[in-house]
Design a protein that fits this description.
The complex is a heterodimer of chains A (408) and B (561). Chain A is an alpha/beta fold and 408 residues long. Chain A contains 17 helices and ten strands. In chain A, helix 3 crosses helix 4 and helix 10 crosses helix 17. The longest helix of chain A is centred in the N-terminal third of the chain and has 30 residues. The chains are: A alpha/beta (408), B mainly alpha (561).
């Protein structure tokens, strides 16, 4: 009985305890002010809501010390012990709760929560998650080592999953279902992570100034006819790093550097921090084309359907549109591998794929699942089927290449 | 001193106990005070040391690559940004502080607190709003193009170095304003009388007397603005203006080298440390004690166009630094409020307020103890320890967050192993993901923010006051409580206000150390801006700004009274 209650409200108790001890502190400070100005005897401070066990713990020892210190020690110690104790209960309670998966996610809450809720409804397994950027999450997993609470890592690009695998933070998952649901080029060859949605990087153009027939490939945007007509997002964004990494894999570093230099020479304005902004510049006629992920286009058009913008699927004669993934892997020291595997499988299943992709106007990885009607209306296209692992392997090289080419 | 700090930095719990024993011995001998700064420095040194320890690990070819390609440009960019923001904040902050503290003009009372409000807005939000309004596709230029034709070559490009500097000055000037105003207010009437008796007019009085006397405050505020600038990533990222911090994040996130990133950050620490030491060397030759507290200056009445000019200046600053961003956020927020606003916002708000309040309390208490300890034992070890303790503010947030997280994770696994071996119980993670961890992490970051105002305020306490207290037989604690606290009140409230809003805006440490499911308003902003959904981020942002206003106004009222 107590146990279930603790499971349900561990945070509440802790907050009350912490708040309680701080009320004590505040009361004491105000008491001090009065004491300093008048000569009234100092009011005795009682800490509200403090259970007996902590009190006996700290009121025992410090009797040897002076009065001032005696009053200080209980306060600080009480607070600390309480906090440690409460969270020990909290974690103890959650540790005994076997059926749960803990997720570290770089994919933001709005884009994962609906799927987790569906999973819990389906299986009864709870999903606990925390969001942050990829870099800190990887650093966190590494620092926690085998004590990590995390069972699963979700990122919004392939490069960071590759890096996580490289650092030995993930474990291979043998699952027939995952192999069937996720095409080979969208998961790790050693099965340490799997793509869950496809993010297509395409060319967006101003329909009043550019004819689709003028466009062909990413590479062609380096040609002199686009001088002063190109807007780009900064090279610091991982989507551009992945794109250039893929180009290095396809054309080699020398040719790729020429292409990037061509892009830089064609820029109408300095690279922008934001893809939506880049498209708005195109729409306003400050430049004519930009490269963007299709869901940014979808969002912008949803908000403002009148903008003279359209998608062009590049490289259809050649290797296909560059795609990145949002994906997940199971951590090396996962506590609950079966449940985590179930979650991963669920996310790749027909049931969850629409939810996972549609919530952000992305494309499903599962070939049996159709994209959202809005997204489908942008047309079908050939994807570049080089394994997305390449994006990670060559990412550092791509960054250096773009630095050399002066692409900020 | 170094060995001592390092050895006491071994464990967190060890430090806690040390803290207690330090205060108990201080009760009897004043020498014990010396331990307080040393121990606080030790706590701060752990994360900073974790970052610096990267220097002993090879970082591949990242450095060589940087030197060959972008480093020179980054340094030039960083230098001008730092100089520009420091100079701009000092100029704007000091002039506004002087006018509101010493002159009488229409709206003075209102401006004296309202000019602080920009503190509540995160700088990157101001940046995003400014870009949205004033760049090529923004409404201002679009409207001008419709009226005046397509060529607006005369319109200044906001996506420029000057643009970044202006935005950052508007975001960071309140640090200087707050401190300088405090200085001018407490200088009192006498200094102005002295100026008059020396035959100075008002301008001379300001430059020859008031300004030099306010120097520790101005320097303290400017240092805060400078450190904030050097550590900033959000604002420069919105502008795509490459600085040293950009390189740190690029090495980490893009080239997967946390080692190289930490090494670059270490270099940043060294530079900031050098600036601090130079500034303090100059300062330590002077003393700034004031004879009497109570003699408040009577404002200089301004009339006619001068008064209105100053009113206009203050309104202009307030408009661009606060009203415009808040109005834009408000408009965006109204658009999404129906869909996004739910009960959870109360929870976010409560968490934000709770963390900020506790962090302000802890950080200010620690800063007060440190300042007082440094006063009682003004030896070089104590002063050095105090300096080290404030360095966390100059580190880029995410790098410091990792520096904090690694030792905690280490300690946690050590503890759980001990528990396993000694008691055969599975404890799980004890420290990580607790609010105590978060508070200590905030303290390492924001100690500088609370230290500056309290330290400057302490300069107002003359040595003779201490002697009198000693003569009356007051102990160390009693002197601090009964004599110093009332004098330091303004400084402490200033510090609390600053830390409060800073913690509220803080993102990387909150993201990394928060317990599961324990989201705050700034975490919410992160969730929205990560995917570029700025308009949806407006809702948590506007809530954050409004929530930050209340304590700001409250603390200011306390300072003024």
């Amino acid at each position: 009985m107590l146990n279930t209650w603790l499971k349900k409200y561990p945070n509440k108790i802790c907050m009350q305890r912490l708040a309680g001890s701080f009320t004590g502190r505040i009361a004491r400070t105000t008491g001090l002010a009065t004491y300093a100005s008048t000569t009234m005897p100092r009011p005795e401070i009682t800490i509200q809501g403090a259970p007996d066990f902590t009190d006996t713990m700290h009121y025992r020892s410090p009797s040897r010390l002076g009065g001032e210190t005696r009053r200080l020690i209980p306060r600080v110690l009480n607070q600390y012990i309480t906090a440690i104790f409460c969270f020990a209960i909290f974690f103890g309670a959650s540790a005994s709760h076997a059926e749960q998966v803990v997720v570290y996610s770089a994919r933001i809450e709005q884009l994962i929560k609906p799927m987790f809720d569906a999973f819990t409804k389906d299986t009864g397994i709870n999903v606990k998650f925390v969001t942050d950027k990829e870099g800190p999450l990887l650093a966190r997993l590494k620092a926690e080592g085998k004590n990590t609470p995390a069972d699963m890592l979700i990122t919004s690009d392939a490069g960071n999953l590759w890096e996580a695998a490289q650092e030995g933070l993930l474990r291979p998952v043998e699952s027939k279902m995952l192999q069937e649901n996720v095409p080979a080029y969208l998961h790790d060859p050693r099965n340490q992570w799997f793509g869950l949605s496809v993010r297509a990087r395409t060319i967006i153009y101003n329909t009043q100034k550019v004819k689709p027939s003028d466009l062909s490939t990413y590479e062609a945007l380096a040609e002199p006819q686009w001088k002063g007509r190109l807007c780009l997002r900064t090279s610091k964004k991982v989507y551009n790093q992945s794109l250039v990494a893929m180009m290095i894999a396809e054309h080699g570093a020398v040719r790729t550097e020429e292409i990037i230099k061509g892009w830089v020479a064609n820029l109408a304005i300095d690279p922008l921090s934001d893809e939506t902004k880049a498209m708005e510049f195109v729409a306003a006629g400050r430049c004519d084309v930009t490269i963007a992920n299709s869901y940014y286009y979808g969002r912008l058009m949803q908000k403002n359907p009148a903008l003279p913008l359209a998608i062009f699927w590049p490289n259809q004669e050649g290797s296909g549109v560059h795609v990145n993934i949002s994906g997940a892997g199971i951590t090396k020291y996962a506590h609950n591998v079966p449940a985590a595997t179930r979650l991963l499988e669920f996310l790749s299943s027909e049931k969850a794929q629409n939810l996972f992709a549609d919530v952000n106007m992305e494309y499903p990885v599962n070939p049996r699942v159709k994209p959202d009607p809005t997204v489908a209306a942008w047309g079908t296209f050939k994807q570049n089927t080089i394994n997305v692992t390449t994006a990670g392997e060559l990412q550092a090289e791509a960054v250096k290449l773009m630095d050399r080419a002066g692409y900020r | 001193m170094r060995d001592e700090t390092l050895s006491s930095a071994e464990t967190d719990s060890g430090t806690k106990n040390g803290f207690l024993s330090a205060s108990s011995s201080a009760y009897r001998t004043s020498n014990g005070w010396r331990l307080i700064p040393l121990l606080v420095a030790a706590v701060v040194l752990v994360p900073v040391g974790t970052v610096i320890s990267s220097l002993f690990v090879p970082a591949g070819d990242v450095w060589q690559h940087l030197v060959e390609t972008t480093l020179a440009g980054l340094l030039v960019n960083t230098f001008w940004l730092a100089v520009g923001v420091a100079a701009g904040s000092a100029l704007l902050g000091v002039s506004l502080a002087w006018f509101t503290a010493v002159c009488e003009f229409p709206g003075r009372k209102f401006f004296s607190w309202a000019l602080l409000l920009p503190l509540a807005i995160p700088a990157y939000v101001t940046a995003f709003v400014a870009l949205g309004l004033f760049d090529y596709i923004g409404p201002v230029q679009t409207a001008l193009r419709t009226w005046l034709g397509p060529d607006l070559f005369w319109f200044p490009d906001i996506r420029s170095r000057l643009g970044v500097i202006i935005v950052m000055v508007l975001a960071f000037y309140p640090y200087v304003y707050l401190l300088a105003r405090n200085a001018f207010l407490t200088q009192g009437k006498r200094s102005l009388e002295v100026a008059q008796s020396l035959g100075f007019n008002r301008t001379q009085g300001f430059f020859k007397l008031a300004l030099p006397m306010a120097r520790p405050w101005i320097a303290g505020g400017t240092m805060l603005a400078l450190m904030e600038t050097l550590a900033d990533f959000g604002t420069v990222a919105v502008f795509n203006y490459d600085t040293f911090t950009t390189a740190i994040y690029k090495a980490w996130f893009a080239m997967f080298s946390l080692t190289a990133a930490s090494q670059l950050a270490s270099l940043l620490i060294v530079i900031v440390f050098a600036v601090i030491i130079v500034e303090q060397q100059f300062r330590s030759r002077m003393r700034y004690a004031e004879t009497r507290q109570s003699a408040k200056a009577i404002p200089i009445p301004l009339t006619g166009w001068r008064a209105w000019l100053i009113s206009g200046f203050a309104s202009g600053t307030l408009f661009f630094a606060f009203l415009l961003p808040v109005m834009q956020l408000g408009i965006w927020a109204v658009g999404v409020v129906e869909r996004d606003f739910d009960q959870r916002y109360l929870e976010f708000l409560w968490h934000s307020l709770l963390l900020s309040a506790f962090a302000a309390l802890l950080t200010c208490t620690v800063a007060l103890l440190m300042v007082y300890a440094a006063r009682r034992c003004p030896d070089s070890a104590t002063r050095g320890a105090v300096r080290i303790s404030t360095i966390g503010y100059a580190l880029p947030g995410a790098v410091l967050a990792v520096g904090i997280f690694i030792p905690i994770a280490w300690l946690d696994s050590w503890l759980s192993e001990m528990a396993m071996q000694l008691f055969h119980i599975e404890t799980g993670l004890l420290i990580q993901g607790t609010l105590v961890t978060m508070l200590i992490a905030y303290m390492t970051r924001f100690l500088a923010v609370s230290h500056s105002p309290i330290d400057s305020a302490m300069q107002r306490v003359t040595g003779s006051i201490d002697e009198a207290a000693m003569g009356l037989g007051l102990s160390g604690w009693a002197t601090l409580r009964r004599v110093h606290l009332p004098i330091l009140k303004g400084g402490i409230f200033t510090a609390a206000a600053l830390v409060f809003v800073d913690v509220m805006k803080e993102m990387p440490i909150t993201l990394m150390t928060r317990p599961f499911g324990w989201d705050t308003l700034s975490v919410r902003i992160f969730e929205m801006t990560t995917e570029g959904q700025w308009e949806q981020a407006a809702l948590p942002a506007v809530t954050l700004v409004l929530a930050g206003l209340l304590p700001l106004i409250f603390f200011m009222r306390q300072t003024e009274s």
